[in-house]
């Protein structure tokens, strides 16, 4: 049975351990934080350098300066940090995230990623997913 993006996000959230640092990629991974089980804390990280960001703001309360990698508005929580994107990727390559949920262009049924293209008008590139799958513990 094919899962919807919401179902995949819910399922992924169930496997996140208490206190885990989790990098969320673009697309359905952005929804994972919404489905975190009640009482289970995790530090969600976005590739543009905002570890500890919070949920999406209420409609009309968005701050255009607070966005995740997918350009969606987020909120800040106590403990949220801000740093340069290069430092964010250094953290990823350095093995600091416990879990990475990348936004994959294509995933084979074996779990292999094929993030080699940015589309017909873009320059071919592996993007940040390769840093994530290499550096995250899980």
UniProtKB/TrEMBL annotation:
Q: What class of enzyme is it?
A: transferase
The EC designation for this entry is 2.8.3.6
Determine if Phosphoprotein is one of this entry's keywords: no
- Taxonomy, superkingdom: Bacteria
- State the coiled-coil residue ranges: none
Q: Which Gene3D superfamilies match?
A: Glutaconate Coenzyme A-transferase
UniProt keyword terms in alphabetical order: Transferase
What GO MF annotations does this protein's record show?
Answer: 3-oxoadipate CoA-transferase activity
The answer, when asked if Nucleus is one of the entry's keywords, is: no
PANTHER family in alphabetical order: KETOACID-COENZYME A TRANSFERASE, SUCCINYL-COA:3-KETOACID COENZYME A TRANSFERASE SUBUNIT B-RELATED
What protein name applies here? 3-oxoadipate CoA-transferase subunit B
Q: Which organism is it from?
A: Pseudogemmobacter humi
């Amino acid at each position: 049975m094919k899962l919807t993006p919401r179902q995949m996000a819910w399922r992924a959230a169930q496997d996140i351990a208490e206190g885990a640092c989790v990098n969320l990629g673009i697309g359905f991974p952005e929804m994972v934080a919404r489905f975190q089980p009640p009482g289970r804390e995790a530090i969600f990280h976005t590739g543009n350098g905002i570890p500890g960001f919070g949920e999406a703001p209420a409609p009309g309360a968005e701050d255009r300066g607070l966005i995740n990698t997918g350009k969606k508005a987020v909120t800040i929580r106590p403990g949220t940090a801000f740093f340069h994107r290069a430092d964010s990727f250094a953290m990823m390559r350095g093995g600091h995230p416990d879990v990475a949920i990348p936004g994959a262009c294509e995933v084979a049924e074996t779990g292999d990623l094929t993030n080699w293209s940015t589309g017909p008008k873009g320059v071919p590139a592996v993007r940040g997913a390769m840093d994530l799958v290499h550096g995250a513990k899980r």
